[in-house]
Amino acid sequence: MALHDPVAVYNAANNVEAHLVRNALANSGVDAFVTEDVSQVGTWMFGLIPEIHKPQVWVEKTDVERAKPILDDYERRSAELRDNSARDEAQAGPDVEIACEECGQRSAFPAAQRGSVQQCKHCGAYVDVEDERSSEEWAESQGDEEVTGES
Predict the structure, then answer these.
(1) What pLDDT does residue 59 have?
(2) How far apart (Å, rounded) are the C-alpha atoms in residues 86 and 30?
(3) Residue 120, Ramachandran bin (φ over 0: left; ψ between -120 and 50: alpha; else beta)
């Protein structure tokens, strides 16, 4: 169905968000349509230039009042998710600083990467992202096992 008196009710950050909003409106019984950003006009060597073309969600003018609470709910939920994500990052703890065994340079990694293997930011060698204290404790426990004959 084509819109006879269309109104843009939402400017999305990207095409995916525009379709999420359209689906939320459609699931609530409001016919909505998306205009995607498929233009190459805003493209340059580092990606898309923001604000040249925006993906938008459109509804019939008569449906604007029905769409408003749905859009408000979407915005509230998006803000909650952003806040929760920021809180999770903050609770993850301080960055983990390690020394590369290959080049000896020190690098800091986000606490969320603790326990993973990453590449040294200086030489590209693989490094275990863990507290140096826990590395030393592990090495000491390995030394104790060798002395006692355990394995």
Answers:
(1) 95
(2) 32
(3) beta
What whole-number distance in Å separates Cα of residue 28 and Cα of residue 17?
A: 17
Per-residue pLDDT at 130: 83
The pLDDT score that the predictor gives to residue 41 is 56
Report how far Cα 68 is from the mean position of its chain's Cα atoms.
Answer: 26
| Confidence band for 70, pLDDT divided at 50, 70 and 90 | very high
For 3, other C-beta atoms within 10 Å of its C-beta total 14
pTM for the full predicted model: 0.52
- Residue 36 token pair: 């995607």
Instruction: State the total domains in the chain.
Output: 2
| Residue 1 lies inside a defined structural domain of this protein | no
Angstrom CA distances, 12 to 29, 33, 150, stand at 20, 12, 61
Cα–Cα nearest to 5, from 54, 81, 58, 70: 58
Q: Is residue 10 part of a domain?
A: yes
Same domain? 123 vs 74? no
H/E stretch holding 118 reads strand 117-119
Q: Which domain holds residue 60?
A: 6-91
